[in-house]
């Protein structure tokens, strides 16, 4: 079972867009749980998490991924930012990865070279590769270091501009 950990970034509309894309993955049994992490005290975000059955966690921006992953029920986690919209055929790509490279992390990059480079540049050295779009075992993310470099998935994600 995979848990989606979503940083809300104080944006309820973008969070709603990302959660709506996850619904088919839940129906297929690919996503079993979601954790919404926010660094504010936004009632709309907490309500949205509750209405969709997701767990809600408050954490500082620097601790968002680790706090969210700690609440994950699944052995694998996919990290997303509010507004991230994976391409329509993303679930078969993830299932295939888990069947063929079960211990290796994977990355669903942002669509477009400029967006991917901006995101890559924004990743701090302290994060050790833990960033949005990452699919990895929960234990590796909690340890703070990925066992191997992520395998790049063929599917991409784009960020909704709301």
Automatic annotation (TrEMBL):
This is Glycosyl transferase family 2. It comes from the Bacteria. SUPFAM superfamilies: Nucleotide-diphospho-sugar transferases.
């Amino acid at each position: 079972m995979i848990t989606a950990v979503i940083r809300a970034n104080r944006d309820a509309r973008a969070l709603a867009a990302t959660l709506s894309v996850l619904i088919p993955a839940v129906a297929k049994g690919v996503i079993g749980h979601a954790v919404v992490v926010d660094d504010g005290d936004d009632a709309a975000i907490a309500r949205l998490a509750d209405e969709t059955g997701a767990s809600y966690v408050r954490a500082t921006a620097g601790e968002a991924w680790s706090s969210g992953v700690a609440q994950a029920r699944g052995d694998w986690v996919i990290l997303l930012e509010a507004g991230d919209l994976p391409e329509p055929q993303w679930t078969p790509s993830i299932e295939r990865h888990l069947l063929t490279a079960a211990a290796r992390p994977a990355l669903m990059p942002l669509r477009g070279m400029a967006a991917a480079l901006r995101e890559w540049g924004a990743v701090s050295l302290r994060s050790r590769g833990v960033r949005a779009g990452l699919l990895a075992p929960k234990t590796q993310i909690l340890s703070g270091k990925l066992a191997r470099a992520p395998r790049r998935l063929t599917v991409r994600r784009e960020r909704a501009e709301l």
